[in-house]
Amino acid sequence: MNASANNLPSRLDPFLRAEVEDLYARYSACVDSGHYEAWPGFFTEACTYKVIPRENHERGLPLATLAFESRAMLEDRVYGITQTLFHQPYYQRHSVSGILITEVTSSGIAVEANYLVIRTRSKALSEVFNTGRYIDRVVREDGSLRFAEKCCVFDSEMIPNSIIYPI
Amino acid sequence: MNASANNLPSRLDPFLRAEVEDLYARYSACVDSGHYEAWPGFFTEACTYKVIPRENHERGLPLATLAFESRAMLEDRVYGITQTLFHQPYYQRHSVSGILITEVTSSGIAVEANYLVIRTRSKALSEVFNTGRYIDRVVREDGSLRFAEKCCVFDSEMIPNSIIYPI
Amino acid sequence: MNASANNLPSRLDPFLRAEVEDLYARYSACVDSGHYEAWPGFFTEACTYKVIPRENHERGLPLATLAFESRAMLEDRVYGITQTLFHQPYYQRHSVSGILITEVTSSGIAVEANYLVIRTRSKALSEVFNTGRYIDRVVREDGSLRFAEKCCVFDSEMIPNSIIYPI
Asked: How far apart are CA A34 and CA A32, in angstroms?
């Protein structure tokens, strides 16, 4: 019942999968530990990062909850999170599953995955905060994988308060 | 500390694991995106698909919430979901984790995994809907892996309303 | 876009990853199925197992909710769970994701991962019970991987009732 190591489609290459899974694991570790200053480093300089409701995404409506179009804009966001945005702090905890490499081409690796973010506020029980699908494009840059595009398509129209930290 | 590539038990073969993990990732993507018409294609023609409470499963009681015994029955179910079953639509989002290959024999690959399904209804917050364990048998057919048996053993006796979409 | 199989850092070695992921999958299967008597066997004889609030962990405060310092103490805990601790039984279901090998040295494999435990009580809906991060050290012993250290750093100061079963 073994897979043949020959003629494998790239999405099944265990070496590539290890790198992709490691990228997502490091990304979750970064944003859940609150090391927001390291977050833009997961992206290429000319990148897009969007958080968009599923309904808009499926209807082709462009309206996004958050939309950034360069690493510099992500750095601005980090400044906002850590310095200027007034908000009640919370912990978040990602569960990223079903990482699916959908295409490997010269312009990058198309990756999708389900994500679930659990939020924990001070003196409160942990709760489901946001769930949806990552639709990403990953590229190799200086030997490392980075996100050239990250689109977080979330299922709920309702979000308990605002999304402050990176999804 | 590296694993020896020789004399590995099959459950640790990275090439087989890549195929199995890819199967589960594609399955989740299918049922969460609402492409129900593609769902029966994940199964062999003579398959079983069951959704059963943990209590019944552990006591050996056969009573299942859902039990289908062929791909044709799954196709009927899809017809029901999309055409005839009266229900309030909802989004679902799987988190499948801890994929465990328990046995590899000539009759297939025994696979178990934990699953969690988050449900999101219109104008409502996302919520824990159903969680439990997949106890599956996967076989290779025409070069692809398919489910010959899929048993979804869920922890809760109580389910918020009915299970409409595939788990 | 393939990873080079040469000069890979150990954390990206698919063979090692398969073994580590299999360890976590078997651990979850054990503690979620209620086979608590098998739980100490996942640890080395001289091990540490801790469950500690994130706030204490981040401030370097040693106060832990649970702290055991040998396999024998884990066996005592199992005796408590199954024989003496008065508690209302519940099912638990782990979702372990983002397994990240952070270091591979002669003294073991440093592994971190996000975990989420869903609890289901009799006649009740499933609910988020505990979420946080495993910070572990895994070693090879008699050919198998075991936990020499397992630290469960949980996000919430509030826990619905007590943590009875292993996280």
From this structure: 5
Q: Does B142 touch chain C (CB under 8 A)?
A: no
Residue B108 Cα to chain centre, angstroms? 16
Answer whether residue C82 shows pLDDT above 50. Answer: yes
Residues B83 and B98: their CA atoms lie apart, in Å, by 35
Q: Which domain holds residue A23?
A: 10-154
Q: What is the pLDDT of residue C160?
A: 62
What does the alpha-carbon distance between residue C98 and residue A20 come to, in Å, rounded to a whole number? 11
Question: What's the CA gap between B55 and B63, in Å, rounded?
Answer: 10
Q: Does C12 touch chain B (CB under 8 A)?
A: no
Axis crossing angle, helix C14-33 with helix A14-33, rounded to the nearest 10: 60
pLDDT tens sequence across A44-103: 999 999 999 999 999 999 999 999 999 999 999 999 999 988 888 999 999 999 999 999
| Phi and psi at residue A60, to the nearest 5° | 75, 15
- Per CB-CB distance under 8 Å, the chain B contacts of C24 are 98
Chain C residues with CB inside 8 Å of A125's CB? 128, 156, 158, 160
| Assigned domain for A167 exists | no
What is the value of ipTM here, to two decimals?
0.94
Q: Which of residues 75-104 of C touch A (CB under 8 A)?
A: 95, 97-101
Provide, as residue numbers in chain A, all residues whose Cβ is less than 8 Å from the Cβ of C100.
22, 25-26, 29
CA A89 – CA A121 distance, rounded (Å)? 7
Confidence bin at B162 (pLDDT 50/70/90)? confident
Q: What kind and span of H or E run contains C14?
A: helix C14-33
Q: Which of C20, C97, C109, C130 to mutate to test the interface with A (most CBs of A within 10 A)?
A: C97
**A124 neighbors C159 (Cβ within 8 angstroms):** no
Phi and psi angles of residue A163, each rounded to the nearest 5 degrees, phi first: -85, 110
* Residue recorded with tokens 């801890």: B98
Give residues with Cβ within 8 angstroms of C109, minimum separation 6: B1, C16, C20, C101, C103, C137, C138, C139, C145
Q: What's the CATH code of the domain at B42? A: 3.10.450.50
Please give the model's pTM, rounded to 2 decimal places.
0.95
> Are B156 and C124 contacting, i.e. CB atoms less than 8 angstroms apart?
yes
Task: Report which of B40, B107, B38 is spatially closest to residue B73, judged by C-alpha positions.
Answer: B40
Q: Tell me, yes or no, whether B160 lies in a domain.
A: no
Report yes or no on C167 lying in a domain: no
Assess if residue A162 is contained within a domain.
Answer: no
Give the number of domains in chain C: 1
Minimal CA separation from C80 to chain A, in Å: 26
Neighbours of chain C (3+ CB pairs under 8 A): A, B
